[in-house]
Known about the structure:
Layout: H1 4-15, H2 20-27, H3 31-40, H4 52-64, H5 69-76, H6 80-89, H7 106-117, H8 123-130, H9 134-144
Helix pairs in contact: 1-2, 2-3, 4-6, 5-6, 8-9
Amino acid sequence: MLNDKQRKQILEMYGNGEKVEVIAMIVGCRNDEVSKTAINAGMRRHARFKNIKQRDDDIAKDYMAGIKVAEIAKKYGLEQTNIYRALKRHGITERRCKSVSRKLTPHDTSTAVQMYQMSKMTMAELAASFNVSVGCLTGIFRRLGVEPQRKKRAA
């Protein structure tokens, strides 16, 4: 059972945007007691964010500036799925890999495939030389039907 002082502290911290888990730990109660106290006081679940639209705008700006989703999530105390939802509300599509900003030209793609198939360069070396991630190159090769090369075992 919570006393009046604890309820007041919960509502103040919840209204300031503190996470339920943190409030529960500080006040010394269960997470559900924090949530129920806030709900009974008329606070909506997301009412702890004073201006969700402003927060979403800031998330979108951070994302467009190239900040990683994991870093944005940490900055705002949110899960990564919430970051993706905020971006979706802004009509921003998820970055898949570095090649989104620098796509390989058809010539670069064919050169990379030839170099890889002739075993002149590893996937990591190709990715570095074309300034894309290994994952992006793997995806491009997979779409083109290029068979992955297996590492040769030393005898």
